[in-house]
Amino acid sequence: MTTAPPTIPSIDRLLRDAAIVCVLPVYGHAPVVAALRTAAAALRAQGLAGQDEHAVRTGLITRALAALTQSLAPSLIGVFNLTGTVLHTNLGRATLAERAVAAVCRVAAQPTNLEYHLGSGTRGDRDVHVEHWLTRLTGAEAATVVNNNAAAVMLVLNTFAHRREVLVSRGELVEIGGSFRIPDVMSVAGARLREVGTTNRTHLRDYAEALHARTGLILKIHPSNYRIEGFTAEVPAASLATLGRAQGVPLVVDLGSGTLLDLAPFGLPHEETVQETLAHGADLVTFSGDKLLGGPQAGLIVGRAPLIAALKKNAMTRALRVDKLTLAALEATLSLYADPMRARAHIPTLRLLTRPTAEIAALSARLLAPVANALRDLAEVSVMACASQIGSGALPVDLLPSAGLSLRPHPASGAVGQLAARLRGLPRPVLGRIHQGAVMLDLRCLEDEGAFLAQLNELAKPA
Ligand SMILES: *Cc1c(COP(=O)(O)O)cnc(C)c1O
């Protein structure tokens, strides 16, 4: 006797199945129907031979549920940054302090006084939420905030040098992160670049000779991700400020990273602070919110009040403005700088950059055994000394002594690229650096070691 081949249950019947009924409120009717239809079609194409009704039904439902889960999985997710680059642009640069995260959540879920003056009940200015912090912390007369530092530079150029000339030293005509090239930003902003000096040496007289009635700005740019060494000369901001002031031409300094804290006492190389640059006579200083400052993506502009007022009148600001989430995160981050010790302890970027090497080495030693155990079938694990870098163009040549784990694949378990891919495939992907046949995990930025270890068991399962 032969039994009739099983049939695929109707969508209506499947929609009454308990397993489907309970996910309907999560995914909605239409997506569930679509997932069931797709699963039914796949099953039909594959053939039902050798299965009974029950197997067909559960197979179909399992397949549909898996597709639904995947459809809601977020694309933008958290990762472990064990690359050794603390401010990694591709990994979203700075992570926010807890206080900043809380501030973002607070203003995200309710109406706010973003542009509303509560005292007078009239329209307000969104900059007020951060301007008082920026002036207090940097000594500037005024401040404004735009989307990022590239936008800040563009706005400054367009406001003061549209169809006018901008004097820039040839040694500072930099490209940062591939997409920010000073000459290109200049032309998009409608300013004319006037190169002065040579690549390695520029003198005050080079600027003085280039300055004339059509000069809109003198721009000094932090070279960020490279350094010219040897027979070099650059003109200090103070001399440029004096030269510009005599002719009524503002000096603008694009600091790039722009730190508010001198990190030298914590063992990092000295980087000129925003306060120092202003004290040297810069009329405006621009810097990023998510580099050394350790806040949200933003472009901060501080300096003389009439110049800031002119920037705010430019119609371009409407297209470059930041939203309430950014302002909330920035206000909270800046407030931590009121006490440098608290800034260092609570702002993750500063905490990680100043993390004692001995602490990172102790963490590496502690994790050696559990990591080696989780990876026993895949790789030989050992503790290594290594060097982290700050990233995002800050102090590019200076490396920070660090420690971590080196994962060298067993000869039989495949290439190092495969091991790196397995680590990237974890629920919270682990990103290291491949070096000489091993995956290197710099543990400087690992603070949540429990979460890191908890998911490593997944590696023991077959790929
Ligand atoms: C990083 C950097 C920029 C660009 O800043 P974003 O905030 O990434 O837009 C501009 N100038 C310098 C000198 C930089 O280092």
Question: How is this structure best described in words?
Answer:
- The mean pLDDT is 92.
- The protein folds into three domains: 11-71, no CATH class; 80-88 and 353-460, Aspartate Aminotransferase, domain 1 (Alpha-Beta Complex); 98-346, Aspartate Aminotransferase, domain 2 (3-Layer(aba) Sandwich), CATH 3.40.640.
- The strands form five sheets. A seven-stranded mixed beta sheet has the order 4-12-11-10-9-5-8, with helices on both faces. A four-stranded antiparallel beta sheet has the order 13-14-17-16. Strands 1-15 form a two-stranded parallel sheet.
- α12 links the parallel β10 and β11.
- The relative contact order is 0.12.
- With 463 residues, the chain is an alpha/beta fold.
- It starts with 10 loop residues before the first helix and ends in a 9-residue tail after the last helix.
- α4 packs across α5 and α6 runs antiparallel to α15 (324-336).
- It has helices spanning 11-15, 18-21, 24-27, 29-46, 53-72, 98-108, 128-138, 149-161, 182-188, 204-210, 237-247, 274-279, 305-313, 317-320, 324-336, 340-346, 348-353, 357-374, 416-424, 449-454, and strands at 80-81, 116-117, 122-123, 142-146, 165-169, 175-176, 180-181, 192-196, 215-221, 251-256, 284-288, 299-303, 379-391, 394-409, 430-431, 433-435, 438-442.
- It is built from 20 helices and 17 strands.
